[in-house]
Specification:
- The protein is an alpha+beta fold and about 450 residues long.
- Helices cover about 50% and strands about 15% of the residues.
- The chain has 19 helices and ten strands.
- The strands form two sheets. Strands 1, 2, 3, 4, 5, 6, 7 and 10 form an eight-stranded mixed β-sheet that branches. It has a two-stranded antiparallel sheet with strand order 8-9.
- Helix 16 packs antiparallel against helix 17.
- The chain is elongated.
Length: about 450
């Protein structure tokens, strides 16, 4: 049950982090061998023994690993040690983890482990592993080592995680920028990004229809705003994409190409790839929404006696009789109300009571919200109520409920024409609006209007 909650909870949690491991190096031990060189006054002498690499891993099986991972490898020729510094460590067993996640107050930390152990774990998980050796000055490498050794100390290693603004990838991005004297941010800080946050997310979720829909459903209007290249580097792969051709001028005025060489440690072929261009798909959601609309329309017409049934019993009797069809129609509305009520309540909670700001300003709340839960008791009353008058009343209220939901969905389409309300939420609209229309009172109103005019 805990794992199921984690999978749902970490839907985007982008998710980029990896669970804490038992094989980390003690932080005090990792700092002792530097003492013989003193402070940064001898940084050039210390730095010549160091090799710094950026390690990027591909997606894994668990949802929180779909967006890959990233860390810094520091190899020390003087001591023979190679260490992997990881800014994406968390533990499901941490105190109050699920409570903190629910309200958007997740603490992540930086930990260090032997590179060989870390890479073995990634390879065993059947993930790509690529190393980018960085061309940094000896002074920059020595300073980076001091910083890394200091950041893994218990008093320094924790930080407040944010899906897009502060995660393992943005931490590595900032470290590289500092090592390059701020040149990385100078070049990419204001450069227009290729895609929006939502589009980048969907590049990684395309192979899973439910999670692709659900994660996009949770993202609000801010996910569709233009972003910079700097912002795009919340993803490990985007860090790798932009450092390959990046050059900078070091403190001595020497032009350096940041990446000296690229080394592929592991490459997998049997895993869904990442899309170069995000899919714009909402056709499959529309087809499903239309399919549900036809189903509800047929059931509604059969339950009303407009499509004649039969009095025969036997197999599938509940589809052959008016009464049996009413049971199916009512129960189908109960299931629909329960499923979308849960999703709408989660979105409502995240949008108004947490610091998950990527869910704010979400037009999906106009038509997928806790109001769906009203279909549960009403559907049961309509399907199984013994009093015909109460059943008819429940049917009328249900019709009104679906009318409100349809109008909310229609409103969410209209406001998209105003730039301040623009949101790429067509998948949610395409799924819900068709069947909400069929279940609403609008078709009956049209029918009465036509008869009246004739």
């Amino acid at each position: 049950m805990k794992k199921l909650f984690a999978a749902i909870a970490l839907l985007f949690c982008i998710i980029l982090p990896v669970p804490a491991q038992e094989n980390g190096i003690d932080s005090e031990e990792s700092t002792t061998y530097y003492s013989e060189f003193g402070s940064l006054s001898n940084s050039a002498a210390r730095g010549k023994y160091l090799t710094v690499k950026m390690a990027v891993t591909g997606p894994g099986d668990e949802i929180y690993s779909w967006w890959g991972h990233i860390g810094i490898v520091i190899e020390d020729a003087l001591t023979g040690k190679s260490q992997f510094f990881d800014w994406g460590v968390f533990s499901f067993d941490a105190d109050n983890y699920y409570y903190d996640f629910a309200f958007g107050r997740m603490l992540y930390c930086c930990m260090v482990s032997p590179t060989e152990h870390a890479f073995s774990r990634f390879i065993n998980e059947n993930r790509d592993v690529t190393l980018y050796t960085l061309d940094l000055s000896p002074e920059a490498k020595a300073e980076l080592l001091l910083f890394a050794e200091n950041i893994v100390l218990p008093e320094n290693r924790d930080y407040l995680y944010h899906m897009f603004n502060d995660n393992c990838a943005t931490r590595v991005r900032d470290i590289i920028d500092h090592a390059a004297g701020g040149a990385f941010n100078a070049q990419y800080g204001e450069a227009p990004g290729r895609f929006t946050l939502r589009q980048h997310m969907r590049r990684y979720t395309w192979f899973s229809p439910f999670w692709d829909w659900f994660i996009s459903f949770l993202m609000g209007q801010d996910g569709d705003l233009p972003i910079t290249v700097w912002d795009e580097m919340f993803l490990p792969s985007e860090n790798a994409f932009y450092i390959k051709d990046f050059s900078y001028t070091d403190a001595d005025g020497t032009e350096r190409k940041l990446v000296l060489n690229t080394e592929v440690i592991n490459r997998v072929e049997d895993r869904p790839g990442t899309l170069e261009i995000p899919q714009k798909g909402w056709i499959k959601e529309l087809l499903l929404g239309i399919g549900l609309a036809f189903m509800f329309g047929f059931l509604r017409l059969r339950a009303a006696g407009i499509i004649p049934g039969t009095k025969r019993t036997g197999k599938l009797w509940f589809f052959k009789t008016t009464e049996g069809t009413r049971y199916v129609l009512g129960f189908a509305q109960v299931i629909t109300g329960l499923c979308f009520g849960v999703m709408g309540s989660l979105l409502f909670f995240m949008s108004f009571f947490t610091t998950h700001d990527y869910t704010y300003h979400n037009a999906n709340l106009l038509f997928i919200n806790p109001l769906f839960f009203a279909a549960v008791p009403l559907g049961l009353m309509y399907a199984f109520g013994r009093n015909p008058q109460k059943r008819q009343k429940a049917e009328r209220v249900l019709s009104g409920l679906w009318t409100i939901i349809f109008l909310g969905g229609f409103l969410s389409i209209i406001i998209r024409f105003f730039p301040s309300f623009y949101q790429q939420n067509q998948p949610a609209q395409a799924l819900v609006i068709p069947f909400a229309f069929v279940l609403s009172g609008i078709p009956g109103w049209f029918k009465k209007s036509i008869k009246k005019n004739i």
